[in-house]
Amino acid sequence: MMILVTCFSVFIGAVDIPFDTVLRIMGNKLFGLGDISDIPTYMVSIVWRLYAPRALLGLIVGVGLAMVGVVMQAMVQNPLADPYILGISSGASLGATFAILMGATVLAGTVFQDFGIEAFAFIGAIGSSAFVFILSSIGGKMTTTKLVLSGVIIASLCGAVSNIIVYLEPNAEGMRSLTFWLMGSLSTIDFESVKICGIAVLIGLVFFSTQLRNLNAMMLGDSTATTLGVDLSKLRKFYIILTSVVIAFIVCKCGIIGFVGLIIPHISRGLVGTNHWKLFPISILLGAIFIMLADIVARTLSSSEIPIGIITSLCGAPVFAYIMLKRSYRFGGGN
Q: Are 88 and 128 in contact (CB under 8 A)?
């Protein structure tokens, strides 16, 4: 299924290119097969420089968001947790808002070369995660309740500061650019961006694949997990850092794509149950498929591209409502 969706993602786009032409271009670029000198240069550029990296990035982003969603929901034992509940998205939004609307891009262009907005978004994401981590550690042992509440506090603060900056800035063009970026997009992608996101997601994927036993223990509750020998405080600290890094790289390159980390783990639990040995691989598979399908819809539904975050929200909200109302749904050890 994922291979089929990936093929469609490379094939479908605003420019109509025959399927066999797409196959010839991909075969030549990937494996050196055949001769593509008779194919117009613009078709080769569109397929290889636009459609192919976009499909690959969609796959990587879907895997990353679903993976982090699974880990965060187990980590805080909260079915509503997702990559953004701990304030990471709000921190990235604040960084991007500052870069776009306050003219900091010029300064960032000097310091970070051509990655001004992405660099500020990355700093915002990492900074907000650090504040959540520090705030939840004050006054004693870090708990799931303190983590969630700290995330809500930091998200609210970052959102308020972003709104103040937007309110005071009369630059209409900057507002439009920021709005599109905050709704998520895979449109300005090249293989360098794919490589950067891919490395971050791969590191997280390899590590969390070795943590499935601990994730199962976390879902049983703090007391049971501690009895089983799981050091929850230490693990939560490390999980927060690693998931924040993964999300920060995704947000830097694609903006904010919501609902994936929230609904994909729930759909997967409905299919295979709560055991992470099954839940984890199914979630990352469904996450990749979901993002690639949403991106296909985003770039073909109208003459102008729709931000992918709108598509994921339109799909995710009713699905999540159905799952929530379904009586047989189970999260962890209880209904």
A: yes
Mean per-residue pLDDT over the chain, rounded = 79
Residue 35 CB partners (closer than 8 Å, separation 6+): 28
d(CA 9, CA 47) in angstroms, rounded, equals 10
- CA nearest 182: which of 266, 270, 84, 35? 84
Residue with tokens 């036993």: 213
Residues 6+ apart with CB under 8 A from 49: 190
**Mind listing the pLDDT tens digit for each residue in 225-253?**
778 777 777 888 788 788 878 887 887 77
Report the C-alpha gap between 110 and 189 in whole angstroms: 22
Buried/exposed code over 194-207 (b: 16+ C-beta within 10 A; e: otherwise): bebbbebbeebbee
Q: What is the pLDDT of residues 89-116, one digit of tens each?
A: 778 778 877 777 666 555 545 555 555 6
Q: Where are the alpha helices (DSSP H) in the chain?
A: 2-11, 19-31, 41-45, 52-76, 88-101, 104-111, 116-137, 144-168, 172-182, 191-209, 212-219, 222-227, 232-254, 260-272, 276-300, 308-325
What gap in Å lies between CA 291 and CA 57, rounded to an integer? 9
- CA R_g for the chain: 21
Q: Could you identify the residue written with the tokens 């509440």?
A: 149
| Dist CA 10 CA 48 (whole Å) | 9
Q: What is the pTM of this model?
A: 0.82
For residue 5, give both structure tokens.
Answer: 């969706």
Name residue, tokens 């905050």: 182
